[in-house]
Model the fold of this input.
Amino acid sequence: MKTGNKIVWVYTWLIVGLVVFVAVLFYILTARSINKVYESYLAERAIATAEKYWERDELDDASYDLVQKRYDQALPIAKELILNADSVIKVRKSLSRYLSDDEITELYTKHIVHFEGKDHQYGVALYYPDNEGNFIVLVMSRNVYGAEIKEHLLLLSIFLVLFSSILIYLVGKIYSGRILIPLQHILKELKRIRANSLNRRLKTTGNNDELEDMIKTLNSMLD
Done:
């Protein structure tokens, strides 16, 4: 493989590798942000559900209307499951379908736990103590819109990586060609020197670089 091609491929692989790393990192961080936002929506729905069921007797009509409005606006497409936390054995059996033992313990400690259910569903479990008793609200839903965004983002990232690879290769080809022009000029001049024309000398560039040193060395050898 010629030096020019080596330069092109090394340059291309290094830059493309960097582009792929940035694209993957951007996709992962964006996907996590989308999931975090959706989890916050689920938490709002769980709190709104709890307030709707158990704050009716403690609020006036105007305040309860606000609760009802917040419930109606918070993530309408969701599955709800309401459990009586005072029935310890029964509620743990129901929770074990969705949460691990550690998550159940965390639920009773921190009063809210996010989890992933079946069929790519996201869920939130809320422990809600009330004067009527202690309850647990589970809200589950699929982040369809978020999944579409992540799919489009993945396709866009793949397209950008492919497009960048082609562009970087072409730029590397042009760049390596410009780098090698002085060397090609030196080789051309050397081929003109024969046994009967040893008085010819290579022209110096005046750039005071490695190529300049090589030209001076070749001229000294000819001397």
